[in-house]
Amino acid sequence: MTTHPTQLTSAEIACIWTNYMQDSMSKCVLSYFLQTVEDEDIRPLIQWAYDISCTHIEELTTLFQKEQIPLPTGFTDEDVNVNAPRLYTDAFMLNYLSHMTRVGMLGYSGFTS
User: Fold this and answer.
1) Exposure pattern of 48-71 as b/e (b: 16+ CB <10 Å)?
2) What crossing angle do the helices spanning 90-112 and 10-36 adopt, rounded to 10°?
3) 45-53 mean pLDDT
4) Which end of the chain has less Cβ packing within 10 Å, N or C?
5) How confident is the model over 72-92, as a mean pLDDT?
């Protein structure tokens, strides 16, 4: 019997591609938030979300390389100016995290099915 690795389906590739794009965008937004947040009680939450996005990007990059699929460009540090003046309140940042958490959960549940 011949064994060979199972390749990802187009639906699975679409899921990891979408997830990569979402996490690269989140990394950019959250890096800006980390530079401008004033409330020290909110900073650890933003840092936690930033770290999760970075971890996801690393894991997805490994998966793309393993499957020999071109890595999406995604969003990069060139797409955000972390030194821009403060545009958002700390309350907005916290609200953003709450909403994006829900979007992520919805996306992951869809990817699983």
Assistant:
1) ebbebbbebbeebeebbeeeeeee
2) 170
3) 96
4) N
5) 95
